[in-house]
Amino acid sequence: MDVQKRIAAQVLKCSPKRVVFDSTKLKEIKEAITKSDIRGLIIDGFIAKKRMKGISKFRARRNRTQKIKGRRKGHGSRKGKRTARTPKKESWMNRVRKLRIMLKGLKQAKSIENNVYWDLYRKAKGGFFRSKRHLQLYLQDKKLVKLPEGAKISSKEAKPEKSEMAEKPKKEKPAKKSEKQEKGKK
């Protein structure tokens, strides 16, 4: 039986440990001594190979979905400094971009004058404002915004208007099938 197992392993291209014989057809398997005999038994289903044991992705997928929801990201799960997770430059770029978008929106809504806009723009570049909220408080304290009484700066007002080009949806191109795909379907 060891010989048959070895030959079957060669035919199946796996380890002899993975070769499994059907216990009801052991006589026929014993009589098989050539590769062609073994191939016939494999086709009949009397000889098979075990599936390889792998590492399941189930837990990894479950953890990834939880991380997407915002779980498993506490202090105990972190390695490296805060700046290793989001670099200083990246957080700076995000902050300045948000401030500039807000300023652009206020300018387009004519809530602030041009000279005030550029003054605030330079202050944002210089790191004067910690956040959008800080900029809003600064505008209200210095009374630089032209708003009706009792009204506050809303996030909608602070966003710039999109151009006409950006609003139009792009035309979808019909998908061209490659020759390989067409041949595969025939």
Word description of this protein:
The chain starts with a helix and ends with a helix. The protein contains eleven helices and two strands; from the N terminus they run αβααβαααααααα. The model has no long low-confidence stretch (mean pLDDT 88). The longest helix has 21 residues, at 88-108. It has 186 residues and is mainly α. It is rod-shaped and about 100 Å long. The protein is 55% helix and 3% strand. The chain has a two-stranded antiparallel sheet with strand order 1-2. Helix 1 packs across helix 3 and helix 6 runs antiparallel to helix 7 (114-125). Among the domains are: 2-49, 50s Ribosomal Protein L19e, Chain O, domain 1 (Orthogonal Bundle); 88-161.
Question: What is the alpha-carbon Rg in Å?
Answer: 35 Å
| Beta-strand content | under 5%
- Which strand order spans the largest sheet, edge to edge or round the barrel? 1-2
The helical percent reads 40-55%
Largest sheet descriptor:
2 strands, antiparallel
C-alpha termini separation = 44 Å
Strand segment count:
2
Overall geometry comes to: rod-shaped
On the 0 to 100 scale, the average pLDDT is 88
Q: Which class do the helix and strand fractions yield? A: mainly alpha
Report the total helices. Answer: 11
The ordered string of helix (H) and strand (E) elements is HEHHEHHHHHHHH
Poorly predicted sequence stretches spanning 5 or more consecutive residues = none
